[in-house]
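Archive entry. Fields below.
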Amino acid sequence: MRAAERRGRRGLAVAPPPAGGLAAGAPAPRGAPQPVVVPFSYCPRCAAPLADPASFVQEYWVAVQTRFSCWCRACSFAFEIALSDRVTGHETRSQP
Amino acid sequence: MLTEKRNQQLTRIGPGTPMGRLLRRYWYPVAVTGDLDELPVRRVRLLGEDLVLFRDGSGRLGLVDEACPHRRASLAYGVCEPDGLRCAYHGWLFGRDGRCLEQPAEPPESTFKDRITITAYPVQELGGMVWAYLGPAPAPVVPRYDVFVWDGVFRDIGHALLPVSWMQIMENAVDPHHVEWLHGRYFRSIQERRGLPVARTFGRRHVKIAFDQFEHGIIKRRLLEGQSEDDDDWRVGHPLVFPYMMRVGGGGSDQMQIRVPVDDQTTWFVLYTVHHPGGLPVAPQERIPAYEVPWRDDRGNHIVDYIEGQDIMTWVTQGPIAERNKEHLGASDAGVIMLRRLFGEQLARVEAGEDPLGVLRAEHDVVELPCEKDKFGAGAAFQTEWLHMGSHRYSRAIRQIEEPYARAGASAGAGR
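PREDICTED_STRUCTURE:
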């Protein structure tokens, strides 16, 4: 639930929650596998669906950040997606 | 985490599965050659297929389906004839190419045998092992990796049949940090409790790790505390040889760790070691000694007071097939992620009709693999601990192995 909320706050597409699952507020049974929610669906380079089982999407974590290591079978593009709370633009000039 | 579906794709290797199609593009060792001297017919299971390996009366090797097509009795109990393997039940005879050559109980004029064949696969000998290929024709050549063909070395083979997916063992090959903890901290706790000497060279802290894809797989690098990037562990590293081996070495020995995918939940784990301490001359071996690596004690507990026993404990306790949909990978698991992605890429290559990574078509003398010589920057100290705190202690040839190291003395670290 918290993970889905966080992703929603960031304005990213949220995959449909499993019926009767976490989104309903019911805690997962102890020991039950947590569903892997991938908050994006398409390759950022060629737009092929990453749900293709021959493509690769691996979730992992660095400190508080959730990342996905991906490889698109359609265009062979290897990339990483990091979920973040803020996007900081470049600085246009130096501080005085 | 990995979805359950992708985990299944990664670990199902039977006929007709995507991973099964990929893995069938490679040659696999299925027996130690010397074992056929004692009994020339052996049951073999590889990639989920039940087969029989035999040496016929003319000395030629064959690999065929285990079940006789007549009444399905096992050919593993067959009789080796000059031209092939005869079923023990009714005497049907099969050649190495799978053709049925005789059906002795049928009428002499019968042509029934001409319409009967069993699946037969190519086999070859290399480095004291028998290798099999279960993939589509034409078969690639058997890669002549250095340790299998070097002259002037002493060879020794340890092996164990493990109730675990080969993929878990391969992921361990790109997980450098486990050495510091499993073979360092954990091992130290066991030895201290027993009042035994502690392994010093395995517990050094990792400063950074790196992985590079190359033509035979992935090169793994580590920089340990106190080392510089000029040290062997970082500058050279050692390779995961795609898709099922890892090459290691140091202190006068080199080793190929082989993880043969027997089926989805079983792996034949082989430690193929060559010893050449100080470059001293080694007498030619008539036969490579082989030993079984024990990993459970009488009470069924894991034996964890040696290096490979600790590895086996972690692989097996992950479950027959690790539930990757429950795991939590971190930044230190970069190698594991890279390997999984590499398998995905190679699956696509096979589906596109291309050869996957590491398949060799051209004849060659030797494939020299990059591998550090000064392991952990420890010189000969590494070898001392490797010999006495690793699986070598179970080798039937341990005295023969130790002797040249003792002769080489301080020069043992020089190696090949």
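CURATOR_NOTE: The first helix of chain B runs from residue 4 to 11.
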